[in-house]
Specification:
29% of the residues lie in helices and 25% in strands. The protein is α/β, with parallel strands linked by helices and 540 residues long. The chain has an 8-stranded parallel β-barrel with strand order 2-5-8-9-12-13-14-15, surrounded by 4 helices. A 6-stranded antiparallel beta sheet has the order 18-22-23-29-25-26, covered by helices on one side. Strands 19-1-24-28-27 form a 5-stranded mixed beta sheet, with no helix packed on it. The protein binds alpha-L-arabinofuranose (AHR).
Length: 540
């Protein structure tokens, strides 16, 4: 603080000299320049970003479900990514599910996995994907590349995957081209304990016990690939579907998520909140991708600094969009019973050269790490309303955490951010006040540094910091209140280039490292964040 005042004083003093004396004498010119130089030097070590944390004032829990993932029948997400078939002798698997991918995701402790789409969900008829594989019909995946879908990965395989991962399934029901009966049967097939045609069918197919799946989406992007509906029509459709999706076990009942708005379509949210009885709707989905321009995206790896900045501005829009939807929801639901579920988010670029344009396979660089870090900070800070989110998509599609090529697998920079942030799962949100400088490029500005903080039951405080500035390091000072900190340690993800990424030949190019650059002095933590870096601190 004292250094801050000294710097301000010196700067004002020099300005005064410059104004009053107007630098007439040569000596004054030299003196002024010298003082200015000293001021600049002094300000180098002075925090441009100051953060205040009241470690004893947490009110909301950061649901671990904010760290959810999404797996669609799209490109090589399911086939080749998660599932390689029971007969595959080259790639280690359990009942066809890749062991390497499962192990990597178990390390992330992923809380939920959304399936089977996306747009695919509204073309998916679940009965095509059960029973003997040789009897399952082959269909065309009309949304994604027009390839043949042999239905060898269906309900049992997906729920086996979730059990192997130790994660909760989130199933998106077909509203666009399905029927109320079909979706209601699916819920019964999966969840019903007693005797019914659907539970008997499940048992015939080898599963005695119900799976008790809690999270169900009622259609996907009803405003687009899910049926091009008007929200005024969708609300009635939703009410009908939701009425017949019934299941409860013990005190638990299913959690139904309406197909919500795209980006900042607040009207969509308003009509859902107004016209759907809230006992029928536990969550509203919302999709927002960080895309420069839908008609002219950028290369995933060969992008310019300007394209980086615009992508970050699009990612930062998430803050405004969540605030907007939360404000609308607050008007109808002051107690915040209905969750905002950001069930698709991430960066969207051109596909890798030479790959099927319908497969959405893209590389993943430090730019993606910045999107992930900043977006997860935004979600954490809105934990009162945002209680679930799903990065699009887990393996080989869009902003993936894992990429595969035959038997090879690599972890992306986004994977490491998810890993560094996992201490936030189900921890208490500690509200953070931040003053930072702007990162300005292409005439637009966003805050350079973002932060979120949480406290675990054992008292450990986690502080995640992201500096999106592509050029400048950021000195940061954190004022810790309500806690007697004993020590701080951390991890950092940084690289020499924004475009840095991992390849199958060099899978460890971008990797987090231990970070000892944070200094604890009483109740102050100071550190300097390198340009485009993510730092997660653990304070005891
Ligand atoms: O994630 C890819 C696609 O993006 C999904 O299928 C769809 O819901 C969204 O438009």
């Amino acid at each position: 603080m004292i250094r801050y005042f000294i710097s301000v004083f010196l700067t004002l003093y020099v300005s005064y000299l410059a104004l009053v004396i107007r630098l007439k004498s040569k000596i004054m010119k030299y003196l002024t320049s010298l003082l200015l130089f000293i001021c600049l030097l002094a300000s180098q070590g002075i925090a441009q970003t100051t953060i205040t944390l009241h470690a004893d004032e947490g009110e909301y829990t950061i649901s671990r479900h904010i760290y959810g993932h999404f797996s669609e029948h799209l490109g090589h997400c399911i086939y080749g990514g998660f599932y390689v078939g029971e007969d595959n002798k080259m790639i280690p698997n359990q009942r066809g599910i890749r062991t390497d991918v499962v192990n990597a995701l178990k390390e992330l402790e992923i809380p939920n996995l959304r399936w089977p789409g996306g747009c695919f969900a509204d073309t998916y008829h679940w009965k095509d994907g059960i029973g003997p594989k040789s009897d399952r019909p082959k269909i065309v995946n009309t949304w994604w590349g027009g390839v043949t879908e042999d239905n060898s990965f269906g309900t049992h395989e997906f729920l086996d995957l979730c059990e192997q991962l130790g994660t909760e399934p989130f199933i998106s029901g077909n509203v666009g081209s399905g029927t109320v009966q079909e979706l209601s049967d699916w819920v019964q097939y999966i969840n019903f304990n007693g005797e019914s045609p659907m539970s008997e069918l499940r048992k015939t197919n080898g599963r005695e016990e119900p799976w008790k799946v809690k999270y169900w989406g009622v259609g996907n992007e009803a405003w687009g690939c899910g049926g091009n509906m008007r929200v005024e029509h969708y609300v009635d459709v939703y009410r009908k579907y939701a009425t017949f999706m019934n299941a409860r076990w013990g005190d638990e009942r299913i959690f139904r998520i309406a197909s919500g708005p795209s980006d900042d379509n607040y009207h969509w949210t308003e009509v859902l909140m107004r016209d759907i009885p809230h006992q029928l709707m536990q969550g509203i989905g919302m999709h927002h991708y960080s895309v420069i321009n839908w008609n002219k995206k950028s290369s995933a790896t060969e992008f310019s600094e300007e394209e980086y900045a615009v992508t970050m501005q699009k990612a930062y829009d998430m803050e405004r969009i969540i605030r907007g939807h939360s404000a609308v929801m607050d008007q109808y639901d002051a107690d915040r019973r209905v969750a905002l579920v950001v069930d698709e988010w991430g960066g969207w670029y051109d596909v890798e050269p030479g790959t099927n344009p319908g497969f959405l396979f893209q590389q993943n660089t430090m730019r993606d790490a910045m999107i992930a870090g900043m977006t997860l900070n935004i979600f954490n800070n809105h934990a009162d309303r945002v209680r679930m989110a799903n990065l699009a998509q887990t393996v080989n599609v869009l902003q993936a955490v894992v990429l595969t090529d035959g038997e090879k697998m690599l972890l992306t920079p986004t994977y490491y951010v998810m890993d560094m942030y996992k201490a936030h799962h189900d921890a208490t949100l500690i509200p953070a006040k931040i003053h930072t400088v702007d990162y300005t490029l292409e005439g637009k500005s966003i805050p350079a540094v973002s932060v979120s903080a949480s406290k675990k039951e054992n008292g450990t405080l986690t502080i995640s910091l992201v500096n999106v500035d592509s050029r400048s390091a950021q000195p940061v000072s954190i004022d810790l209140r309500g806690m007697h900190a004993q020590g701080v340690q951390g991890q950092i993800l940084q690289a020499a280039k924004l475009q840095a990424h991992n390849t199958f030949d060099q899978p460890e190019g971008v990797h987090p490292a231990n970070y000892n650059g944070a200094k604890l002095d009483g109740d102050q933590i100071t550190l300097t964040m390198p340009p485009f870096s993510v730092i997660v601190l653990s304070v005891r």
